[in-house]
Amino acid sequence: MDAPEKSFDRVAEEYERLRPDYPDAVLELVPLPDEATVLDVGAGTGKLTRVLARRYAHVIAVEPLDGMRAVLERVVPGVESHAGSAESVPLDDASVDGVFAGQAFHWFDHDRAIPEFARVLRPGGVLALVWNSGDESRPSPFPVAFSEYRDELHAVAMKRFEEAPSWSELVRRGPFGEVHEGAVPHDHVLDRAGAVDTLGTTSWIASRPEEERAALRARFLELLPEERSYAIPNLANVMWAVRT
Fold it and tell me: How many CB atoms lie within 10 A of CB 57?
C-alpha cells in the first residue's frame, strides 16, 4: 500500500474531475481584502486555488506532488505555482497576507508547518483552513447499505488521526489570535459512476493496490444500483485566525 498522502498523484485527473469545488461565498467569512497576496499550500489540483484567484490580486500555489501540480497549472494557468510543502514553503519571510490550506491540513507535520505559516505571513495576516464535509443536517441521497460500507472503510482509515489534537488547538500553538469558524452549505452533483469513482480519489482507497481498488469499486457499484444523479449535501468549512 502506498503512503496515503502520496497516493493522490495516481488519481490526479480523477480528483480534478470528481472532487467537489468550493463556493466563492466561503471567502466572505475570511477577513482579507481583495488586493491581498495569498498562498494556497498543499494546493492539489487547484480546487481552492481557482476560488482564491477569482477574488485576490495575487495567488501563489505550493504543491509537493508533481502530478497534482501539473493539473493545477493546466486548469488555473494564471496562478504562480511552485513545488514545495507546508513544512518548507519556498517563499520569503512576511511575504503574504493570507495562507490557505484546502482539504490538506490533516496531512501536514503541524510542528513544522505552523511555524512556516507564521514565517511567511505578515503581521495581521490570516491563516485559513478550508475543507468540504458532508452536511449532516440534510438527508443523504445514498442507500443506507452504501453509506454504511463507505463509513466502515473510512473509519478504519481515520484511526491514525483519532488522538491528534484539534485543529483549533494546533493553530493556537502558533502566534495566532482567536480561532474563528464558519461554514457555507452547497451541493455536489454526480451521476452513479461519479459517486463511486469519487471514493477512489480518497487516500484510504487510492493508496491500495490496483486489484483491491477494483474490487472495492465493484462492491460500491453493487450497493448503488440506481441510474440517476445524486445531489450530495456538503458544507464548505473554514477556520481562520490572525497572525499576531
Answer: 12
Whichever domain contains 72, its CATH number is 3.40.50.150
Amino acid residing at 73: E
Residue 14, in any domain of the structure:
yes
CB 121 within 8 A of CB 243: yes
- 186 phi, psi to nearest 5 deg: -160, 165
Q: Number of structural domains, the chain? A: 1
Q: How far apart are CA 160 and CA 162, in angstroms?
A: 6
pTM of this structure: 0.93
Cell of 158: 481515520
The string of pLDDT tens digits covering residues 78-119 is 899 999 999 999 999 999 999 999 999 999 999 999 999 999
Is the separation of the CB atoms in 13 and 66 below 8 Å?
Answer: no
